[in-house]
Design a protein that fits this description.
The protein is of the alpha/beta class and 261 residues long. The chain is built from seven helices and twelve strands. It starts with a strand and ends in a 16-residue tail after the last strand. This is Lipoate-protein ligase A.
Length: 261
Amino acid sequence: MSEKWIFLNTGFRNGNFNMKFDEHLAFLFSKGRIRPVLRVYGWRPYTISIGYNQDESVFDFEKIKNAGIGFVRRPTGGRAVLHAEELTYSVVMNSYGKSVIEIYNLISRAIVRGLNLLGVELELAQTEHDFRSFYKDFKSIPCFASSAKYEVQFKGKKLVGSAQRRFGDVVLQHGSILIGEFHRKLPEFLKIDSIEIVEKIRAEIEEKTICLNEILHRNVSFDDVAEALKQGFKQEFGIEFEDKILLDEEFEIEKLDLISL
């Protein structure tokens, strides 16, 4: 019999909700109160998220506020992402003794299998930067400026950016699947006086990233990506899903303890 997972669609929420919700899922799973989860969600308003240890002082919060964009720190590592025209996924599961890179590989294979159903031929990155030196460079600020091993690419360009954290044997991994191009505006919100440097960062993102709309030459919907991702995980993990949809705008994280997952 196939293992049962939860497929959870929480719709479009603000950054604080999205990050706290992921952490709370990991907490509930660690207590044995829920099964493994594949969650899909979006961001309203568009939001910049930064890694757990990333310096926020490089961002211009006045520009961010005036643009109506949110800002949040993730519970995972990695670099900055402007969450906009994308589908964000999160996975909560047991590590079963597998390393961080092994889980990255497993989840990335499921993502590739799913997105291939949309007509995309993707590959996994096989090499990665020397991040110790890379993070000293201004170009390291955006997540999509580089690829880690086993991240999802199209012809060498990054399509999915992911980050992972462990809570004992519990894995929390989430990531952005780019649908449109709005993420490229991230450099506009950096506190950098040099226009030349901002343009270099912008060029770096444009050179090294790609989105589904660009690959497929059509507008891809959030729902299309969600369904493809679901099928990819079913096939790669050999699992079955029970669907849950939480779209109530008044939904509070605390109520998660009370619903049947």
